[in-house]
Amino acid sequence: MATTLSSSTTEDAGTCCATVTGDVISFEAAERAARTFKALGDPTRLRLLSLIAASDNGEACICDLTEPVGLSQPTVSHHMKSLVEAGLATREQRGRWAYYRVVTGALDAASHALRP
Asked: 20 falls in which pLDDT band (50, 70, 90)?
C-alpha cells in the first residue's frame, strides 16, 4: 500500500528551517566569549570572583583568597591568571603581593554575545 503526503505535509517539510534574521556572532567575538565561559566553568573561579566582588573595597589580595577556597597560593594564582586572561579580573602588583579586582561589565559583555 503506497502512502501519499498531503499538501500540508509537503508544505511544512519545505519550511522546516528558520531564516537567520539577526546578527550572528563573529568568530572573534565567539572566541572571546568562549574564553570567558571556560574561565567561569570552574566552581573555584566562580567563588574567587564572588569573594573579590564581595570585599569591602572591591579588591582582594591573593593572600586573602587562599583560605576561603582551601587551596594553596600557587593554585589560586593559577585560577586568577585564567580569570585575568579571560578579562573577568584585573591584577595589580604591590610589592610582593598581587591584588585583584572584578572587571565591571565583563559578565554582561559575555552574555551579550548570546542575546539576539
From this structure: low
Confirm if 49 and 107 have CB atoms less than 8 A apart: no
Q: How far apart are CA 56 and CA 58, in angstroms?
A: 6
Q: pTM of the prediction? A: 0.75
Rounded to a whole number of angstroms, the distance between the first and last alpha carbons of the chain is 47
Q: Give the pLDDT of residue 7.
A: 47
CATH class of 25-112: mainly alpha
Residue 63 amino acid letter: C
Question: What's the CA gap between 112 and 116, in Å, rounded?
Answer: 8
Backbone angles phi, psi at 90, to 5 degrees: -115, 155
